[in-house]
Amino acid sequence: MTVSTGRAIAYDVVVVFVFLLFGSAAHDSAAQGSGHLVALGACFFAGLAAGWGVARAWRTPARVWPTGVIVWLVTVAVGVALRGVLVPDAGFAPTFLAVAAGFLAVTLLGWRALASVPPRR
């Protein structure tokens, strides 16, 4: 299946947004205020944008390799790094890195893998 660049961007944005929503619900981020969620979102959306730039994802947005893998790795690396700088009292927890990397791998690579399955006839 061919996926347009616009649709691929939308899928990736939704994936990161869902990651943020699940994370904030699991950790009661609402108690920390909306600024916390906005700062966290800025970190991971900046990572997603950087991933798209590094991978030049607009050329083959739905490919798992190398596009999806690069987008995923850069999103996680930049998102986690910026989180440590921009989110007050975020600190660094290896479990956060593992959960973020795992969730974003399954979702960012997952929709690309599904898009590469040929349609049934």
From TrEMBL:
InterPro entries: DUF3054. Keywords: Membrane, Transmembrane, Transmembrane helix. The chain crosses the membrane at residues 9-27, 33-55, 67-86, 92-111. The keyword Transmembrane helix applies. It comes from the Bacteria. This is Transmembrane protein. It comes from Xylanimonas cellulosilytica (strain DSM 15894 / JCM 12276 / CECT 5975 / KCTC 9989 / LMG 20990 / NBRC 107835 / XIL07).
